[in-house]
Structure formats: structure tokens, C-alpha cells
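Priority: low. Protein: Apolipoprotein acyltransferase. Input follows.
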Amino acid sequence: MIILAFALLGAVIGGFQARSRGGKPLDIAQYAVSYSLAFAIIGLFITVFLLRG
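Result:
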């Protein structure tokens, strides 16, 4: 659940960042996917840390 929340948060942040820089729709999609993957990996580490501790 944490991983999906972080992925969604990353997609939103990436989309807004690309839009604020004046990106075209494909740029916005690329930023959203890239940020989503990065945030999902961070969420994965947080999940593993919480479940192990």
C-alpha cells in the first residue's frame, strides 16, 4: 500500500514539475513515469524497513 501511495505521489509531482517547465504532453508523461518509478523504489525500501523492524 505504501509503495502505491508513493508511486502516485511521484507521478503527481513529476507531472506538475514538467508542466511548470513548459513541457509538452509526452514530456509530462515521461516525468510522471520517471518520478513514479523513483518514488515507488523509495516506498519499497520504507516498506521493507518497517516490516523488518
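The chain is about 90% helix and 0% strand. The mean pLDDT is 96.
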